[in-house]
Amino acid sequence: MMALKMQSGLSAAAIGQKLGITGEAARQQLLRLAQEGLVEAQNISAGVGRPTQAWSLTAAAEGRFPDTHAALTLQLLDLIRANLGEAALDTIISAREAMTREAYQQAVAGKAQVKERVEALAQLRSGEGYMAGWREDPDGSLLLTENHCPICAAASACQGFCRAELAVFQAVLGPETKVEREEHIIAGGRRCSYRITSGTRS
After folding, report:
1. Total count of domains within the chain
2. φ and ψ at 97, to 5 degrees?
3. pLDDT for position 47
4. At the top level of its lineage, which domain of life is listed (predicted)?
5. Which end of the chain is more exposed for a tag (fewer CB within 10 A), N or C?
6. What's the CA gap between 185 and 147, in Å, rounded?
């Protein structure tokens, strides 16, 4: 698990090399961890031949690593509520939402197609630790997924963060799109996912 924590998307052979064991031994360990819901594989096609399985940690596995920032975040939220009130906390979340929206909009500027914006958004979110990805489904809709929530403690304590996230995605992807949350880590989902529909997909 530590090897995947340090570098996600590794093959069994690459993990075996890092651990000093055979690729088959690493694969057996990965299958055991997959049964426990701690790792998952994605098939990566490299042209001719069988696709390679790229392994990554699940959100459940991420929870096994210590996170002292979570305790500090919860303390700060409690202090804001106790000393400044709920309205002050809402103001802070709204300010963070505006700052994030502006940064994302600058990053996707010039990308006319919805798919391009979704791809850029997934890259931005992955860079922030959300382990994001996206795909286009047969019906033409797009699915943005986030396999990890680095602010899970804060989001659990204050749903305003999740509301702001959805609002940012809608603003960044444009008025011609509709963004709906399908899965939610805070509600017990394995991940957060967002269905994106648009009349101008191409």
Report:
1. 2
2. -60, -45
3. 65
4. Bacteria
5. C
6. 9
